[in-house]
Amino acid sequence: MNWSSAANRRTVIKGMGAGALAIGGIGWAIEPARADLAKAEKLLKELIGAKVPQEGKVRLEMPQIAENGQTVPLTVSVDSPMTPDNYCKAIHILAEGNPEAGVCTFKFTPASGRAEFSTRMRLAQTQNVWAVAEMSDGSVWMTKTEVKVTIGGCGG
Question: Who contacts 5 (Cβ-Cβ below 8 Å, separation ≥6)?
Fold first, then answer.
């Protein structure tokens, strides 16, 4: 075996190992993207424009403490007669601390009968969850609740 070629191979392998460690270390320094209050408010403006949400009409049921953020149940209902002249058009769910603030939107018509749904969502960390209802008369109603998350569901 030629000593110079063995030494060159060792140098190359050491360099590759150091490079892999350096690249791996970069991943530790970069945190996953997180939404925040400002991003959630910006998304809300995109959804409802300049309208100011009012408190009331919207009921958001979620556990106060979620032991695992992977699957947190929620039920949302809106007090609406669901007639052709007066109905809930959409309900938006936003989460301030998730990688993306917009979680989901459910759309309704008078034929829906009720403005209500149940689902599950992931929560990355303890945060406020918002339920925003857009009504056929142009009004917007909102409620929010804080959910304490012990184990995050979005990679946290």
Answer: none
Q: Which pTM was predicted?
A: 0.75
Domain match, 15 and 69 both: no
Give residue 91's domain range. Answer: 37-149
Per-residue pLDDT band at 64 (split at 50, 70, 90): very high
What is the pLDDT, as a whole number, of residue 115?
Answer: 98
Residue whose structure tokens are 């695992």: 68
**Contact yes or no for 60/129 (Cβ under 8 A):** yes
Rounded-to-integer distance, Cα 104 and Cα 43, Å: 12
Question: CATH no. for residue 69?
Answer: 2.60.40.2470
pLDDT for residue 13 is more than 60: no
Quick one: 142 and 66 in the same domain?
Answer: yes
